[in-house]
Design brief:
single chain; alpha/beta; TIM Barrel; nine-stranded mixed β-sheet; 9 strands; 41% helix
C-alpha cells in the first residue's frame, strides 16, 4: 500500500507532474472530498469500502463552523470560526492517522471590498500553512457567492489576494485552489500555471450542472470539484439502475467539461 501522506517535497516532485500530464491520461475521478465524520470513521485504507485510496486521493472537508457575518468596510463575508481554527491541529492528527491526502476549508465572499477579501485570503493561507506543516495538502477555498452583486469585482480582488499569498509561499510548499466559476473566462490562468499550485478546481456554488459545465469549458486547466451539480437529478426514489445511469452520465459530462 503506497504512503498517501507524502511530504510536500515528494508532492512537488511527483504530484504536480502527475496532475499536469497529457489530458488523455486523466482519470474520470482523481480525488474524493469526504465529510469529517465519514473520513475519520472510515476503515483503514486497505479495508475501506468508501474509496480506493491507491487510485483516488482522499480529502477531508475541514468545516468547523463559521463566524457570524462580519463587516469590513461594507464587505460581507463568512470567515472560519476561531473554534474551528484552534481545533485544526487535532483534526489534522486524526486525518494523518487515516492517511488522508489533504483537507479543505471554505470561506464565503458576498460583497466586493479589498480589505475584507484580503482578510479572507490571509485566513485561508494561515490555515493552509498549518496543514502543510502537518504533511497534508490544503485546498484553499475562498468561495465567491454566485449571487454577489459585484461578482466580477470580487473575483478580481480575490485573484490578486491569492496571487500575493501564493508568491509568499516558501519553495516546496504547495496548495490546491477551489474557486467559484468566474465571470471572466480564464481569470485564474495565472493560478493554474503557478509553481506553488497543484491544481485549480471549480466548485458548483448553486449553478446548474449545465451552467457549471459551460463555465468550466471556458476556463482552461481548471477541473471540476462539484457537489450540488454532481447530484442534480438524483433521488432515493430511483431504482439502482436509474440512479447509477444518471450518476454515470453526470460524471461523464463533468469530466468532458474538465479537459479543455
Amino acid at each position: 500500500m503506497p504512503d498517501l501522506s507524502p511530504t510536500l517535497t515528494e508532492v512537488a516532485r511527483a504530484g504536480v507532474q502527475t496532475t499536469r500530464r497529457a489530458l488523455p491520461e486523466f482519470k474520470l475521478i482523481q480525488s474524493s472530498v469526504m465529510k469529517r465524520r465519514t473520513a475519520h470513521n472510515a476503515a483503514p485504507p486497505s479495508k475501506s469500502p468508501i474509496v480506493d485510496f491507491a487510485t483516488v486521493l482522499p480529502f477531508d472537508a475541514y468545516w468547523g463552523g463559521i463566524l457570524a457575518d462580519q463587516i469590513f468596510h461594507v464587505v460581507y463575508c463568512h470567515f472560519l470560526s476561531h473554534a474551528a481554527m484552534s481545533n485544526l491541529s487535532a483534526l489534522l492528527t486524526k486525518a494523518k492517522a487515516k492517511r488522508i491526502f489533504g483537507t479543505k476549508m471554505r470561506s464565503v465572499i458576498k460583497q466586493a471590498n479589498t480589505a475584507g477579501i484580503k482578510n479572507i485570503a490571509n485566513q485561508q493561507f494561515e490555515a493552509a500553512r498549518e496543514i502543510i506543516d502537518a504533511g497534508l495538502v490544503p485546498i484553499v477555498e475562498p468561495e465567491v457567492d454566485i449571487h454577489c452583486p459585484e461578482k466580477v469585482r470580487s473575483e478580481e480582488l480575490l485573484k490578486a489576494a491569492i496571487l500575493e499569498k501564493l508568491n509568499e509561499l516558501p519553495e516546496g510548499q504547495l496548495v490546491m485552489l477551489k474557486i467559484t466559476p468566474p465571470e471572466q473566462d480564464d481569470l485564474y490562468a495565472d493560478c493554474v500555471s503557478h509553481t506553488k499550485v497543484v491544481r485549480v478546481v471549480a466548485l458548483s456554488g448553486g449553478y446548474t450542472r449545465e451552467e457549471c459545465n459551460n463555465r468550466l469549458r471556458r476556463n482552461h486547466g481548471v477541473i471540476a470539484s462539484f457537489s450540488r451539480a454532481l447530484v442534480e437529478g438524483l433521488s432515493a426514489q430511483q431504482s439502482d439502475a436509474e440512479y447509477n445511469a444518471r450518476l454515470d452520465a453526470a460524471i461523464q459530462s463533468i469530466f468532458e467539461a474538465s479537459i479543455t
